[in-house]
Each structure stands twice: as structure tokens, then as C-alpha cells.
DNA sequence: TAGTTTGTACAGAATAAACTGTACGTAAAA
DNA sequence: TTTTACGTACAGTTTATTCTGTACAAACTA
């Protein structure tokens, strides 16, 4: 019969859930894959996923890799099973917030550092009248980064 | 001389700042454009931007449009100037947070509603043993969305 | 009025991203 | 050992996105 009722419902859920997952910076396929794993009761193999999502095994391999790096998925060992098995990391909310915010803040921080470096260099140079407006803008931007950092830190500690 | 010292510093800042702006879901060019406007002292015309960023005027037009919709840029009127003038909305932090979080939450909310609809439909159907695990997963996912909503609301009210 | 200039719609070109199939290294099975 | 199966590197193809030039409507100028 191809698609059971269960599979049909599963697809409906996946469509919606994937959209939310995408908002956390995952590609559409990564999101669909994660949703699928999350709704599956057992750990799955690359072939399982390939069949279910209708995508190549290669694609599953690379996308699972991304999800592993993001710590959203775990590799599972099972006696007697030769293929690799994967399951979604199920502490959904915390896991997401953690990886997302961490990446976010890390990146923003890096940019803040670069900007402060630029600021330092401008200050060191002799006081050029022409640059005052630029300095002012830079100050605001750095302040913005600082605020970002604080806000998101706040959010993460609970 | 082509590139003055000021322009050089401006570019350095723009490179870093644009990265941060991109994290808020803007495309690279939108981000660069916004950074440029933010650092400019005067409102600018499409031709100004086109020259400065080395992109077509058409591109400036469409990208400015996006920024306007996101409320990150304002159109300015100046007596005697025929061309349209634009400047960055300068309450940087608040403006960003507002538009970003609003879109975010709106989207997540929409997905939550769809998921709850699905949940209702499952419950209405006769109790199928096979679906219990799926129901459980759905419940968690909806809970996740609820939590998202609350967390971000909290963040926005200060 | 006719003649310019400005902003944008649209179609096609250039660029980037996603996806697949083959091919191969490695590890388990026989 | 040989044979079989698994996962992934890599190159090429397909698909989506970004960007540009032309063309034109609307607004301004004289």
C-alpha cells in the first residue's frame, strides 16, 4: 500500500516541524532529516533514511554528519547490527538553544574583536578630523555587539 | 586617488559588521548595504550606493526595498533633491531585535498552530495503538514551540 | 508641450548551493 | 584468504539564487 496512515501523519508533522528547525539555521534537508529521526521510535540506518526521504545515501551521509557536529544527533551502537545507527538527541529545546546560541555568540564575538582592533588602530593614528563621524559610528556598532552578547547570555542561563 | 584612508577604514568596518547583520537573516548584499548606510553621515541616493558597492542600480533598488520592509532603512525627503534618499534607521539594537524576533515568533507560532491542528485530528480519530508513539512525539514538539514562544517574548519585553 | 531623469519590472546570464552516481578504502563475514 | 557490505570522497549535474541590462512608466524640467 506504500503510505500507511501513520506515515501520512508523520509527513504532516514533519512539514511543519521542519520549518521551525530551519529557523535555527539548518538547511531544508538537514531539518527534514532531523524531524524524521525525532519522530522515529528506533535508531535508523542511512538506508532507512534514504528510503524514507527519497534522497541518495550520499546525501544522508553528509547531512547526518552536519547534524552530528551540531550535536543534534547521536550515533548508537547495537549488538549484531553492522550498519551505523543514528537517533535524534531528544532533549530538544535545550539542545537547540545551546548549539544555536553558542554559534551565534561566538560569531558575534569574533566580529566584535575585529571591530575593537580597528578602533584601536584608528585611535593610534594621528587625530584626523575627517574620521570623527566614522569613529562615532564604530563606537555604536561595538556597543551593539556588546549588548547582543549580554542579551543572549541572559537568555541562556536558567 | 580612488580610495581614501577614510574609505579604507569604512570597508574594514563594513566587512565585520556585515557578518553580524547577516546573522539576522539578511542576505550578504542587504547586509553590506545596511552597513554602508549606517556608516554614512548623509542620506544617500541609489546611484551613490551603486557606485560605492560596485553593484547595479537595479540591485540597489530591490535591496533597499527589502530593507525598507524590514524597517531597517528610512526614506528621507530633502528640498531641492530630486532623487530618493535613504538612511539607516539608527536605533540599531532595538530595531534589529524587534524585526527579527517578531518574524521569528510569528513563524514559529504559525507552525505551532498547524501542529495543534494535526494533534486535534489525531485525537478525534479512533484510538489507534500504532499511533501512540507519534502522539507522544508531537506533544513534545508542540511543547517545544510553546517554550520557544515564551522565551523570546521574555527577551523582547524590557 | 517635448525632453530628461528616476525608479523598477522583467528576462536572461552568472554564480552558488544542493544533490547524485561512481569508485574506492575499510571492516566485517565466510 | 577471498568475498561482501558499508560509508564517504569526489566530480559532475541539476536546481535555486543573485545579479545585470534593457525597456518602460511616472515624475520632473523647461
What is the name of the CATH architecture of the largest domain in chain A?
A: Orthogonal Bundle
**Main sheet specs of chain A:** 2 strands, antiparallel
Q: Give me the strand/helix succession of chain A.
A: HHHHEEHH
Oligomer state of the chains in this structure: homodimer
Tell me the number of structural domains of chain A. 2
Kindly report the name of the CATH homologous superfamily of the largest domain in chain A.
Winged helix-like DNA-binding domain superfamily/Winged helix DNA-binding domain
Q: How much strand content do the residues of chain A show? A: 5-15%
Greatest interface by residues involved: A-B, 43 and 43 residues
CATH first level of the largest domain in chain A: Mainly Alpha
Terminal CA distance of chain A reads 48 Å
Pfam families (chains A, B): MarR_2
Keywords (chains A, B): Coiled coil, DNA-binding, Transcription, Transcription regulation
Domain HTH marR-type (chains A, B): 24-75
Protein name (chains A, B): HTH-type transcriptional regulator
Report what the structure shows.
The structure is a homodimer of 158-residue chains. The first copy, chain A, is mostly helical and 158 residues long. The first copy, chain A, folds into 2 domains: 5-90, Winged helix-like DNA-binding domain superfamily/Winged helix DNA-binding domain (Arc Repressor Mutant, subunit A, Orthogonal Bundle), CATH 1.10.10.10; 93-156. Chain A contains 6 helices and 2 strands, in the order ααααββαα. In chain A, a hairpin with an 8-residue loop joins β1 (73-76) and β2 (85-88). In chain A, α1 (5-22) packs across α2 (28-39), α2 (28-39) packs across α4 and α3 (46-53) packs across α4 (57-69). The mean pLDDT of chain A is 91. Chains A and B meet through α1, α5 and α6 of A and α1, α5 and α6 of B. Chain A binds a DNA duplex (30 and 30 nucleotides) through residues 27-29, 45-47, 55-59, 61-62, 65, 82-84. Chains A, B: Belongs to the GbsR family. Chains A, B: GO terms for molecular function: DNA binding; DNA-binding transcription factor activity. Chains A, B: Residues 101-135 form a coiled coil.
Amino acid at each position: 500500500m506504500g503510505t500507511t496512515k501513520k506515515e501520512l501523519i508523520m509527513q504532516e508533522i514533519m512539514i511543519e516541524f521542519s520549518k521551525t528547525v530551519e529557523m535555527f539555521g539548518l538547511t531544508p534537508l538537514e531539518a527534514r532529516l532531523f524531524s524524521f529521526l525525532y519522530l522515529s521510535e528506533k535508531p535508523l540506518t542511512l538506508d532507512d533514511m534514504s528510503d524514507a526521504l527519497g534522497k541518495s545515501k550520499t546525501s544522508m551521509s553528509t547531512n547526518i554528519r552536519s547534524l552530528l557536529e551540531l550535536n543534534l544527533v547521536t550515533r548508537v551502537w547495537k549488538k549484531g547490527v553492522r550498519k551505523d545507527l543514528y537517533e535524534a538527541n531528544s532533549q530538544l529545546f535545550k539542545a537547540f538553544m545551546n548549539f544555536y546560541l553558542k554559534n551565534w555568540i561566538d560569531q558575534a564575538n569574533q566580529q566584535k574583536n575585529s571591530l575593537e582592533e580597528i578602533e584601536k588602530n584608528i585611535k593610534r593614528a594621528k587625530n584626523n578630523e575627517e574620521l570623527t563621524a566614522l569613529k562615532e559610528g564604530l563606537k555604536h556598532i561595538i556597543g551593539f555587539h556588546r549588548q547582543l552578547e549580554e542579551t543572549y547570555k541572559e537568555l541562556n542561563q536558567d
